[in-house]
Specification:
It comes from Bacteroides reticulotermitis JCM 10512. InterPro entries: AAA+_ATPase, AAA_lid_NorR, CheY-like_superfamily, Homeodomain-like_sf, HTH_Fis, P-loop_NTPase, Sig_transdc_resp-reg_receiver, Sigma_54_int. Keywords: ATP-binding, Nucleotide-binding, Phosphoprotein, Transcription, Transcription regulation. This is Response regulator. This protein has three domains: about 110 residues, Rossmann fold (3-Layer(aba) Sandwich), CATH 3.40.50.2300; about 170 residues, P-loop containing nucleotide triphosphate hydrolases (Rossmann fold), CATH 3.40.50.300; about 130 residues, Helicase, Ruva Protein, domain 3. It is an alpha/beta fold. The chain contains 19 helices and 14 strands. About 5% of the residues have low confidence. It has a five-stranded parallel sheet with strand order 7-10-13-6-14. The chain has a three-stranded parallel sheet with strand order 1-4-5.
């Protein structure tokens, strides 16, 4: 009853109001519409509002949360504010107070727009995903973080291996030390050797002064070796030496340099297959993989796509200083049915592109053409799949994709006039 009364009061004040009976249904509305202010009861059928504020902020950081309770107490109020709530008020405290508080919260939410940046450092809290495979990977990473053993992260490109490496470092006893990352596939053998181990002045042409290697920079910290499977076979022996003895010899030096570095490595290849092919040292593999964690591809954790999309939408709309009110069910369904060969990185890039081109809410037309042509399925075919307009729109989009956006060539292949093609592009809102 009070929910309907408050909703009516806010509507009369000119606010657009969405209602939910419990937290789980409210969470669905939050992901789809990204409201500026949430008025939430403390005692909900499926949880406590005070505890839920951080979860709301995790999904939509710019949103302001006002908690409402019938039995206010000081500890709950203090905890609510600590958790990030805008205010904590008691029912019957008088309805005259609620509208002004909502107004102030709305003003603050507008100020937040574009000011909440993506975190520069990573932690386990920044890893998004509720699927069992991701939760298992996080659990393993948290357990190994406080030790000093080497960790090997495996998984396809774009699954978040560096995010996990950063999180392990932040939760380790070395967190005050440097986290240094290098992609082994980006350098040839000689250049990678000088980057990792450094050199002495005069050791080769152009070496006019001593250079610290990344091992030295990461001393008492963590060195992340990404795409370790791409490292030259000859250089692997020198890396093995560091792992076994904690020392190495710089290029052009005669005495060893001692370092205390934790190694986290990553690869998108199958290490055992690379060993069989003779591309990777078996002894180095066993030194690097004392603790191995596999990160699942996005196609095996599709239940996380909605959460990831909402988080990226929140982050990128802030970064691009653009107000986006959420996404349509058709948009989300298409994302869930895509293959995502580039995994999380590809999904994030797609959302960024969609945020740039959208008007107010993310729709199917804001996706790249190749994704717009993905057949949507739920319990069966989507009803719109059988509509002539939908079929025509998809065919036109496919032809335009084939011609790389050349409308004259597309109209020739479609056997329609160029003016007709332009009209249909406008009518169907086809983004090129």
């Amino acid at each position: 009853m009070i929910r309907k009364l408050l909703s009516r009061m806010m509507e009369l004040e000119g606010y657009e109001v969405l209602q939910a009976t419990d937290f789980s249904s409210g969470l669905k509305l939050l992901k789809q519409h990204l409201p500026q202010v949430i008025l939430c009861d403390v005692f909900l059928p499926d949880g406590n509002g005070v505890d839920m504020v951080p979860e709301i902020k995790k999904i939509h950081a710019e949103c302001e949360v006002i908690l409402l309770t019938a039995h206010g107490n000081i500890p709950d109020g203090v905890q609510a504010i600590k958790n990030g709530a805008f205010d904590y008020i008691t029912k019957g405290d008088d309805h005259n107070k609620i509208i002004p508080i909502i107004s102030r919260a709305m003003q603050q939410a507008k100020k937040n727009q574009g000011k909440i940046a993506v975190p520069a450092s990573y932690s386990f809290e920044s890893i998004q995903g509720n699927s069992p495979s991701v939760q298992q990977a996080v659990s393993l990473a948290q357990k190994v973080a406080r030790t000093d053993v080497t960790v090997l992260l495996t998984g396809e490109t774009g699954t978040g291996k560096e995010v996990f490496a950063q999180a392990i470092h932040r939760a380790s006893l070395r967190e005050k030390g440097e986290f240094v990352a290098i992609n082994c596939s980006a350098f040839g053998k000689d250049l990678l050797e000088s980057e990792l181990f450094g050199y002495k002045a005069g050791s080769f042409t152009g070496a006019i002064k001593d250079k610290k290697g990344l091992f030295e920079v990461a001393d008492r910290g963590t060195l992340f070796l990404d795409e370790i499977g791409e490292m030259a076979f000859e250089l692997q022996a020198k890396l093995l030496r560091v792992l076994e003895t904690g020392e190495y010899i710089k290029i052009g030096d005669t005495k060893p340099t001692q370092v205390n570095v934790r190694i986290i490595s990553a690869t998108n290849r199958d290490p055992k297959k690379e060993i069989e092919k003779g591309n990777f040292r078996e002894d180095l593999y066993y030194r690097l993989s004392v603790f191995q964690i596999h990160l699942p591809p996005l196609r095996e954790r599709k239940e996380d796509i909605e959460l990831l999309t909402t988080v990226f939408l929140n982050q990128l709309s802030a970064k691009l200083n653009k107000t986006v009110t959420g996404m349509t069910p058709e948009f989300l369904a298409t994302l869930k049915n895509a293959e995502w060969k580039g995994n999380i990185r590809e999904l994030r890039n797609t959302i960024e592109r969609s945020v740039i081109v959208c008007d107010k809410q993310l729709t199917l037309q804001d996706l790249p053409l190749e994704l717009q042509n993905v057949t949507m399925e739920s319990d069966g075919k989507n009803v719109s799949d059988f509509e002539l307009a939908t079929i025509e729109r998809r065919h036109i989009a496919k032809v335009l994709q084939y011609t790389n956006g050349n409308k004259t060539e597309a109209s020739r292949l479609l056997k329609i006039g160029l003016t007709t093609l332009y009209r249909k592009i406008e009518e169907y809102k086809i983004n090129l």
